[in-house]
Every structure is written in C-alpha cells, then in structure tokens.
C-alpha cells in the first residue's frame, strides 16, 4: 500500500466509527472497607476441628538466597515450636506448620496457627510469648521472614458456619510484640 492509500483507509475507518466509541462517563461505585467483622454465633455448632476453629495465617515471600536457611531452620526447630506452642497454651493454640506454595513462581509461604476461639490469642498465646523466651525467640525468627516481605499479609479465618453476626474489629494481637521486634531479625544463614 502506498502512503496515500494508507491515509485514505485510515480516514475511512475513522469516519465509519471504527476508531472506537465516543467519550463517555459511567458511575463508579467504590468499595468501602471498614473495621466491621464477623463474630461467632451463640448457636451450638458441633466442632469437627476444635484446635483450629480460628486460623491465623501469615503469607509472605522469601528471597531465593534465604531459602536454604529457612528450610534448615524449619527442619531443626519446627517440631519444638509446635510442642512449645501446644504445651505453653494448654492446647488452646497450635502451630499448624509453615507451608510452601509448590507451584511455579517465586517462593511464597503460609505459616498457620490454630486457635480454639479468638479469645485464646490474648488469654493463652500472648502470655506464652511473654513468659517463654525460647518460644518467643522461635516465633521471632519465623516472623522475621514475614516482616522482611513488604507484601506480606496477616489473615484471620474462622469456621464459616460459626460466624453470622457483625461486630467491630478486634485490634489487639498477641503477635504484636514479636512482630515489632522481628523487623530487625536477620535471615538464618
């Protein structure tokens, strides 16, 4: 095609409306997030997983250069961490493990904790972290990986069938102190 023919073809498309729809505006409805959350129902519900009626889940990535250190640390300390957690919290809080996303892509992890209910975070987990330096230090190393990831997230999940009412968000967290101190924790070599 010559330049003249290309220009004529482009003019024809524009005149025919093929260049796109005329400018317009649509109503945009923003999503509003607030501190409202679900709270457990008082209706009796049979527990099928009582040690994990509430899950606390940390999601984070780990640089490839730090993978061997994390995996070696987990191989050495994960069982002790789980046993200490269960013993110190009177089996009200359990460490459920740290899981690697095993599909392709960058290494992403989930560390999961099971609670029999939300209140044991303050009544059992927080005192365990405050009163056992061994437990605190193990959690601090693990939470340090979470703290170093700018895209890390922290989630709470409850058995859906137990939550039907709304209430305000609980701001307290047993992991606050350990999170604050873990920001400066170095990866395990």
Shape assignment: elongated
Order of adjacent strands in the largest pleated sheet: 3-4-2-5
Helix coverage percent: 25-40%
**What is the count of DSSP helices, taking H or I runs of 4+ residues?**
5
List the uncertain runs: 165-171
Distance between the termini: 64 Å
Rg over alpha carbons: 25 Å
Average pLDDT works out at 80
State the order of secondary-structure elements, H for helix, E for strand.
HEEHEEHHEEH
Main sheet properties: 4 strands, antiparallel
Would you mind describing this structure in some detail?
It contains 5 helices and 6 strands. It is of the alpha+beta class.
Sequence-ordered SSE layout with sheet pairings:
Layout: H1 3-15, E1 36-40, E2 54-61, H2 67-88, E3 93-100, E4 108-115, H3 120-131, H4 133-147, E5 153-158, E6 163-168, H5 176-182
Antiparallel strand pairs: 1-6, 2-4, 2-5, 3-4
For this entry, give a set of tags:
189 residues; alpha+beta; four-stranded antiparallel sheet; two-stranded antiparallel sheet; 5 helices; 6 strands
